[in-house]
Write a structure and sequence with these properties.
The protein has 222 residues and is of the alpha/beta class. The chain is built from seven helices and eleven strands. Strand 10 and strand 11 form a beta hairpin. Helix 3 runs parallel beside helix 5 and helix 5 packs parallel to helix 6. The structure holds adenosine-5'-diphosphate and magnesium ion.
């Protein structure tokens, strides 16, 4: 499972005379296992849309359904459970904890979720292998390249087996070779783990790793 739907989604910022409509009546549907790229000019509302569907911000009007559930109807508890268990986030800047090792960073969601680390030993080994950083498991983030750090943040996003990953310009800060490696990793995760992916990207090339493109302009789907 890993599907996303929005119905008449509207997001406005500001009050009264300063009110700006950033998302204007967005209806999108992303099915289980899809890998979708969200594209559009800077300021067109891509990150805002990603945050709304990821439950990091609330719409002004309309609704977001994740795996068939209207997320506005969830209790705080259910919402944080959804965010911890079913959704993984990857951002442009990797947000790793600098004084934790690679494996400690990857295991952070397990610890935060109050689960037993020993239950995830095999999954950790498998993920370290998938991201190609088995030999760096005891390294600190500062000892890694940008591309390697981003791979660690992807590993952290998938450790709990989410059904969906939201990524906001995940290769925006990387050189083209590292960018390709990160995109290959997303593709692999999408295909092998059947995790639905919604990525924001500026690059047509990286959008090709997905199955479909949604284009936004001035807060509307084009
Ligand atoms: N918290 C906020 N308060 C006010 N305006 C915002 C806020 N977040 C985004 N915006 C505005 O919404 C528009 C879309 O922003 P964003 O979703 O970040 O665009 P994109 O990711 O496509 O570059 C921009 O004009 C931005 O200035
Ligand atoms: Mg953005």
């Amino acid at each position: 499972m890993g599907n996303i739907k929005t119905v008449n989604l509207i997001k406005e910022f500001g009050e009264k005379d300063n009110k700006v409509r950033v998302l204007d009546d967005i209806d999108i549907e992303i099915k289980d296992g899809e890998f979708v790229s969200l594209m559009g000019p800077s300021g067109s509302g891509k990150s805002t849309l990603l945050y709304l569907v990821g439950g990091l911000d609330k719409p002004t009007k309309g609704k977001v359904l994740i795996n068939g559930k209207d997320i506005s109807k969830l209790s705080d508890n259910e919402m944080s459970k959804l965010r911890r268990r079913d959704i993984g986030f990857v951002f442009q800047f990797y947000n790793l904890v600098q004084n934790l090792t690679v494996e400690e960073n990857i295991m952070l969601p397990v610890v935060m979720n109050g689960e037993k680390e020993s239950n995830y030993k095999e999954r950790l080994d498998y993920i370290l292998k998938t991201i190609g950083l088995e030999d760096k498991r005891k390294s600190l983030p500062k000892e890694l390249s940008g591309g390697q750090q981003q791979r660690v943040s992807i590993a952290r996003a998938v450790i709990l087996n989410p059904s969906i990953i939201f990524a906001d310009e995940p290769i925006g800060n990387l050189d083209s070779k590292s960018g390709k490696e990160v995109m290959e990793l997303f593709k692999k995760i999408n295909e092998e783990e059947h995790i639905t992916i919604l990525q924001v990207t500026h690059s047509e090339e990286s959008a090709k790793y997905g199955n479909r493109i949604i284009r936004l302009k001035d807060g509307k789907i084009v």
